Fold:
Amino acid sequence: MAEPSSSTPANDALETSSAAPAETAAVSQGNAARQLLGMKGAKAGETSIWKIRLQLMKPITWIPLIWGVVCGAASSGAYRWSLEYVLIAAACMLLSGPLLTGYTQTLNDFYDRDIDAINEPYRPIPSGAISIPQVVSQILLLLVAGLAVAYSLDRWAGHDFPIITALAIGGSFISYIYSAPPLKLKQNGWLGNYALGASYIALPWWAGHALFGDLNWKIVVLTLFYSLAGLGIAVVNDFKSVEGDRQMGLKSLPVMFGVTTAAWICVLAIDIFQGGVAAYLIAIHQNLYAVLLVLLIIPQITFQDMYFLRDPLENDVKYQASAQPFLVLGMLVTGLALGHTAL
Structure:
């Protein structure tokens, strides 16, 4: 026999009212974190100018670039675990992540403010949280600081030719023509996404490799090939802005081919070109590293089927969070394999 419930309407109301503030606070904190990191789904409301400036720089996007420096240092075969090398590597991560990626993201938000007004009106510029002159000053400051750090790294490495500075200038130029008219590479789904993929994989890899070793054509060609997998990762970002891209005439792959076909192009690019890198590792007799890379590709395929291919519009962020760690670990495995051959 069931015991009588002690619940009453008054008690229920009291419990609901006491739980609501905690739930509201948790939602508010989660939203604040998403907004600060520059993640999809945030809401407007931040008033601190420094947090708004940080939001423009999208810290969540720094991670692949920082990791690319680690992979480049590993592939050089010359990195040593000492305090000096750790600090120099950290400076290169600062260059690739907060400074030049922050520059790229702020520049992109500046030129995408009309599109963001449709797709993401909570972003700092369309929401009016920051003025245009403040945005322009931030772009210039990040660019100048990035070039200064790059030149300092060249001086430390003793380069006759300032290769890291050249990479910083080249990457900054690509960022500009990716976002700015008249070229605006992002208007072309193929070219724009490959430029983005190469900027996220090849450029920081080259910087990390050149900082501690001698950058050679084998590394350049292989990382440009690897960047074709990065093209697939870049396409994932296009699904959140399909409607705005269509209205503004941007030919992203989801706009050109439709959501379903673009999702398949995305996952095939990620998997096929990583598989090609694994085949290359076998060709240079780095079989163990090749097996490790293949084992890291398998979970990606699983998450592609579980999330992305079933509903790319709804699950794009969930897919990136679950599958991208395996991609970046695969990059490190490849870097270690190349560094092993360089010894």
Summary: The two ends are 77 Å apart (CA to CA). The chain is about 80% helix and 0% strand.
